[in-house]
Amino acid sequence: MQDQNSVLEVEGLGVRFRTEEGDVPAVQGASFSVQRGEVLCIVGESGCGKSITSLSVMGLLPDSAKAEGSIRFDGNDLLAMSQEEIRQIRGNEVSMIFQEPMTSLNPVFTVGFQVMEPLVIHRKLSKREAYEEAVRLLEQVGIPDPRKRMEQYPHELSGGMRQRVMIAIALSCQPKLLIADEPTTALDVTIQAQILDLILKLKEETGMGVVLITHDMGVVAETADRVVVMYAGKVVEEADAETLFQDPKHPYTKGLLRSMPSVDDETYALEPIPGKLPKPGEMPQGCPFHPRCDDAMDRCRVESPRVFTVGPGHTSRCWLGEEEKQNHAGKSVG
Amino acid sequence: MPEKVLAKLENVKKYYPVRRGLLNRVAGQVKAVDGVSLVLHNRETLGVVGESGCGKSTLGRTLLRLEKPTEGRLYFNGTDISSLSARALQPFRNKMQMIFQDPFASLNPRQRIGDALEEPLVIHTQLNREERRERVMGLLEEVGLRRDHYDRLPHEFSGGQRQRIGIARALALNPSLIVCDEPVSALDVSVQAQVLKLLQSLQEKHGLTYFFISHDLGVVRHLCDRVLIMYLGQTMELAPVKELYKNPVHPYTEALLSAIPRPVPGRKRERIILSGDLPSPAKPPKGCPFHTRCPEAMTVCKEIRPEWKEVAPGHQVACHVR
């Protein structure tokens, strides 16, 4: 079912790492799609596979990793492409911004050089055109005095400014899809607010699809149209943002929402999820969340749950969803 | 019921010299902490909030006399410790401890956990080997670890467990004051709440006083009794926790509160988005340090540093506008 409007369709994505102790699965059976002009948030804690998922879309997995399934971008399967073909798309039609803007900018080149580079390579502009375009881009992402900034080096900019430069570079080729991996985690809250607003504003202006990876449910609520929750390498729940926050179905999603201290509610009492995150390669049998789950049944300890449709556009990988299924008469997959 | 005063700061300043050039001349100063006056009560948790470079960590380190204040007085249990020598500080050290943000960086990767926890006992107490071992076992259990963790190495623990080890080490000498420097910021949310609960129960049991440094206003609301807001080395607002969240007075506090993303989708937000960046602490603006980003700044804000005044009982603010 190829949707006219979807930019990205990931189906049954699995990523395994070869290690000395054997193959370790990092992502298993992840499926989701991103529409034009839509923000899809992938939420989860460390080791859940959210960053590996985004790196596979960019074709940036290390050599020790092996990906299977399909990642269709604009109808073409990225996993079937050669490195050279992917290079044509990466930075051009799909762009990415990372958590640490300092390590993703090259310290020995000026900001101007780095913003102009993709313009010359992908958009085939002349030096002079590229310069003017770069100034325009820096202006668009809200950098004051862009001509002066063009001559500066990354260390001369603050964290927020560096992230703006990264966004300018990511947008330079008018991508159809922007992947942002924890773009504001290293920034202060007042700067975070600026950057999130900027990403949403640019999405409105250009109509690109955005995949935003984060661990912060607050960021999800403020930006997402749809949300994918990941735990231990699997997508455990998917829903539109409204539904996810108002009617979460997976016990992990519920726990995640409860364990976040509320800024506005003084009566709120801390409710941690007991236990710890499983390490890749040491996954428990059955549902990976069952050792920490209050609702775990005998079945959860032996049999990995299927994905159940629990409402329109709302899926949950939890055996509890089986009862829900009766009410909605939905289908179940994988 | 006001508890007795445990620590007191009077106009404490901590400046660091900036050296430049071939001759390493002092070219300027970073005013990391610039005139902070504060009282810390027994058994309370004071939250200290601010963005990077606001001086909250330096203030915490100065409070423990890990840094010597450039100016001002620092009292602990009534004694002026601002200029005591390292030797004279010794008896105070075991009463003041610290928990760090990155528990892995604060543990020696080759040292067994038991040995790491025993070290303070060797230095500060007369306990013999057996008694020390028993004490360490007790500490491990108290922070929710097991006795058999004694012989393990740091890499065998998860982030949450490592932070528990950091807490156990801070507790080893029965301190009265613990400076917690972003103790849960590096942890995943589902684990973070566990550590916060542990801190709460330990405080109750041992009557601890926490100086809790954080940038997370959600965490602060649920753990702290009073909150101090800092910006570029200066105190902006100090209030009881309920008061601060209900009636923030300083424009910076308002902006901070409104900038936090809330887990409520589709909420119509009247967010105050501050323009501009944090100024460098080496070149803080004249007058009120916040005036360059303040939506309500007046002329006087650019010239004169606002005084630290009380606007309600226990609620202090440094602002010309309010």
UniProtKB/TrEMBL annotation, chain A:
Record GO cellular component, one term: plasma membrane
UniProt cross-references to Gene3D superfamilies, sorted A to Z: P-loop containing nucleotide triphosphate hydrolases
Protein name: Peptide ABC transporter ATP-binding protein
Major location category of this protein: membrane
SUPFAM superfamilies assigned: P-loop containing nucleoside triphosphate hydrolases
Record SMART domains: AAA
Protein keywords: ATP-binding, Cell membrane, Membrane, Nucleotide-binding, Transport
Domain ABC transporter: 8-257
Gene Ontology MF: a single term: ATP binding
Membrane topology, as annotated: Peripheral membrane protein
GO biological process terms on file: peptide transport
Subcellular location as annotated: Cell membrane
UniProt feature coiled coil, ranges: none
Family the UniProt entry places it in: Belongs to the ABC transporter superfamily.
Pfam families named among the record's database cross-references: ABC_tran (PF00005), oligo_HPY (PF08352)
UniProtKB/TrEMBL annotation, chain B:
InterPro entries, per the entry: AAA+_ATPase, ABC_transp_ATP-bind, ABC_transporter-like_ATP-bd, ABC_transporter-like_CS, Oligopep_ABC_C, P-loop_NTPase
Record has Transport as a keyword: yes
Any single GO BP term: peptide transport
Keyword terms: ATP-binding, Nucleotide-binding, Transport
Signal peptide: none
Top-level taxonomic group: Bacteria
Start and end residues of each ABC transporter domain: 7-257
GO MF assignments: ATP binding; ATP hydrolysis activity
Keyword Nucleotide-binding set for record: yes
One Pfam family cited in the UniProt record for this chain: ABC_tran
Family statement drawn from the similarity comment of this UniProt entry: Belongs to the ABC transporter superfamily.
NCBIfam families, A to Z: oligo_HPY, PRK11308.1
Full protein name: ABC transporter ATP-binding protein
